[in-house]
Structure formats: structure tokens, C-alpha cells
Amino acid sequence: MESKIRFRNRQWLQKSLVYIVFTLFTAKAQALALFGPPDITVQPIGISVQNGGTAIITCTATSVSGFTSWNWYCNGKLVPSSDYVTVDLLVGVECILTVPNASTTNAGTYKMTVSNAYGTTTSSNVALVVVLNTVNNVLTAVTGASKMLTSGFKLQFSAPTGSNVVIEATSNMNNWSAIYTNVASGGSVTYTDAVAKTASCRFYRARLK
């Protein structure tokens, strides 16, 4: 009789352990189904900017259990966290990546990963294209507007707006000195060289810096 009771107790214990394990497994599965990894609701979109421009790439995600990390990658390399910020929205959280003064070193494939306690989700890959300024990147002397005035010799050059123009002068064609540096406004830059009033000979040239 005692053996039967022990056998029944062992069976009860085994069934209890199976039930506990099953309950824990089910609870974990339900938690994963309820919470789970973050859900990316708005995928990032590729962008094309001029060389020196600012590129902004965004991605929006939601997570019932909050977030543990956000990470942007460029060509597989981690982007510094100082380059992006997160903004709380009514429908989730938006992560905004900003690439100022973009150059060819910033061009490539970008993606974002977002994590919480239940896993990590990766966004789609998008491209950042940096377009080099190859059109109208020309500096030309405006000969019709360049002439001697009572204040000195007036120089005018046409140049791309926003470009940095350096004007140089020499009296022997060997030793050139920068006499003026400024940003072109309205497609041109103008300078009057007062030294020309007393110089016996003066040559000029300009370049984009």
C-alpha cells in the first residue's frame, strides 16, 4: 500500500513539473506575442543631396515595452549616436539621422536597427547619393567691368554663388600674393585694388578655394 502511494505521489510530482514548465513556456510565448521586438512602421527613404548639402533620413518604430537602443549604420559601419536624435510621436518614436556638409565619404547604404527587451528589428536599406557640383563651377573674369578708377583698379569675376573666391596679384608674374578673399554673392565678386594706383605694372588672377 505504501509503495502505491509513493508511486502516485511521484506521478503527481512529475505531472506538476510538466504543468509548470508548460505554463512558463506558454507565458513566455504569450509575452513574445504580445510585446515582441519593435515594429518599424515607417521605413527610411533614400535621398540625394548636392555635395556640401545636408541629408536627413528618418525611421519610425513602435514598441509596447519601450526601447533599449537605436543604431544607424552606413555601409555596415556604426554611425556615431551624436548624429541622430529620437522624437516621441503619438504613433511611435521617430529616429532622425542628420548628415551635414555631405560628401562622397558619406554616400552609401544606410539602415537602422532598433531593439527592446524582446529582440531587434532592422529597417530596409536605403541609399544616400551625394551629387558633385560639376555644372557652372567656373570662374571667369568680367573684362568689360574691370577698369581703372580713381580709387584703384576694379576687378570683377563671375563665380558660382556661395563659392569662395581668392584674388591674387603680382608685379613680376613669379611671386603671387592673395589680396582679396570673399564668398561670391549673386554670381559674382568685385574688388578694387588701391595698390594699382602707384604700381608701375600689376597682374591679377583668381581661383576658387
Distance N terminus to C terminus? 102 Å
CATH fold topology of the largest domain: Immunoglobulin-like
Main CATH class of the largest domain: Mainly Beta
Number of helices: 1
Structural class: alpha+beta
| CATH level-4 homologous superfamily of the largest domain | Immunoglobulins
Quickly count the domains: 3
Q: How can the largest sheet be summarized?
A: 6 strands, mixed
The general outline is rod-shaped
User: Which stretches of 5+ consecutive residues score pLDDT under 50?
Assistant: none
Measured by DSSP, the beta-strand proportion falls in: over 45%
Fraction of helical residues: 10-25%
Radius of gyration: 34 Å
How many beta strands in the DSSP annotation?
A: 17
Order of helices and strands: HEEEEEEEEEEEEEEEEE
Question: Can you name the CATH architecture of the largest domain?
Answer: Sandwich
Brief characterization of the structure:
This protein has 209 residues and is of the alpha+beta class. The chain has one helix spanning 2-34; strands at residues 39-42, 47-50, 55-62, 69-74, 77-78, 84-89, 92-99, 108-116, 119-122, 126-131, 140-141, 147-149, 152-158, 164-170, 177-183, 188-193, 203-208.
Written description of the protein model:
With 209 residues, the chain is an alpha+beta fold. The protein has three domains: 1-32; 39-131, Immunoglobulin-like; 140-208. The protein contains one helix and 17 strands. The chain starts with a helix and ends with a strand. The model has no long low-confidence stretch (mean pLDDT 84). The longest helix has 33 residues, at 2-34. The protein has one helix at residues 2-34, and strands spanning 39-42, 47-50, 55-62, 69-74, 77-78, 84-89, 92-99, 108-116, 119-122, 126-131, 140-141, 147-149, 152-158, 164-170, 177-183, 188-193, 203-208. Strands 2, 4, 5, 8, 9 and 10 form a six-stranded mixed sheet that branches. A four-stranded antiparallel sheet has the order 1-3-7-6, with no helix packed on it. 16% of the residues lie in helices and 45% in strands.
